[in-house]
Structure formats: structure tokens, C-alpha cells
Amino acid sequence: MGASIGALAAAAASVALLVLVACAPVQPQVGDAAPSSDPSAPPSIAADVLPAQAVPSGEVGVRGEVVDVDGAPELCLGPQFSIAPPFACGGAPIVGLDWGEVDGEDAVGDTRWATMDLRGVFDGSTLTLTAEPTLADLSASPSGPPPSSSWEPPSDALLDVEAAVVEELGPRALSTIAIGDVVLLAVLYDDGSLQAYLDARHGEGVVEVTSLMTDVAG
User: Rounded CA gap, 47 and 147, in Å?
Assistant: First the structure.
């Protein structure tokens, strides 16, 4: 699957951030989060035990929709209603956001919103910024479209895998796409333990996990 999987995985992450009409907001489970001690270490996973939501051990980068209602900015997770101004999305609170550092956000009344590139520390519930936020460049195109063969309809067996993943992960699955011979899954953050679990459960390469939050090299 090679390069096409990488391109499709990037597309899956973008899908999780799209503004969709008539879709209910999706929230991640963070109450049972467990800190990740070493993201580079291969996890030891049992196929019958779903790992807890991992928490980054250091700084992360994330692109997402930020909505601030009455001075309470949040990083929205999952689909949002296409309205202006948007509702408070009930996502991850953001600490340290100064709108004076942002040029080009939308605003109506006491609500501000923008799609931003953020860098900070995430403790499982709150994102504390460690760098100045920037507006996301949404005009940048992907590195290239995947081959047309990658867009072949999925088999019934693959659709069953997608349904099983959605049912098992619940709100942790921000978006899924079953296409060709792979299920593309976008989640808030994975240290490798969820990918290893899904490989053990469904077969290596059947489900491709993409994290919206990615570790920032020190």
C-alpha cells in the first residue's frame, strides 16, 4: 500500500476537521487516559484488551478548528455544524491563546473562530500552548492524489471491520473511511498502542491509524 496509504492517511486526518452540515459533534474520551512514557518504544498489546487513550509525554502539534465563546477557547474535535457563528463545541479547552497574536480570525459578537496550527502540551483534557498560534494555510494542496485504484469500493468484510472499529472505539474514533483494502481511522492521539492493538485484532495494515495530534521533535 506504500505511498498511497500515507496520502490516504493524510486525507483521513483532514476529514476529521471538515465542517459538515447536519453532523453531531463528536467528543473524545479522556477520563481514562494513561500517560505515554516512551512514544518510540513498540507497545506490547493483547488483541482482546483495548488500550486506554494515550496522553503525549511532550509537546504536540495539531491543526484544528478553534472556537472561542465568551473568552473560553476550545479545540473542536470531530465534525461541526456549518453555521456562523459556531456553537461552543465542547472540545479540548485551550490555555494561553491570545487572539491579539492571530490575524484573520472570524468574529461575530462574543464568538471568535479560526482553523489554526497549534503547538502545546496536552494532558488528556486541556491543550496548553507553548508557541504562538498561526492560521492554517488551507490553500496548500496535498502532496498528490492517491492512485485511482485506491478509491475502489471496499469489500463487505472491510465494511464489517470499519463498523467494528467504530463500535469499539466510540467517540475516540473521530472519523473513519473504508476504501480500497484499508480502513483509515483518525483519532486524537495514538502513541502506537492503538495501532498495534488494531493490527493484532484485524490484521496488520487493515486499519491505518492517523493522529490529529503529532509529537513535536525536541
Answer: 32
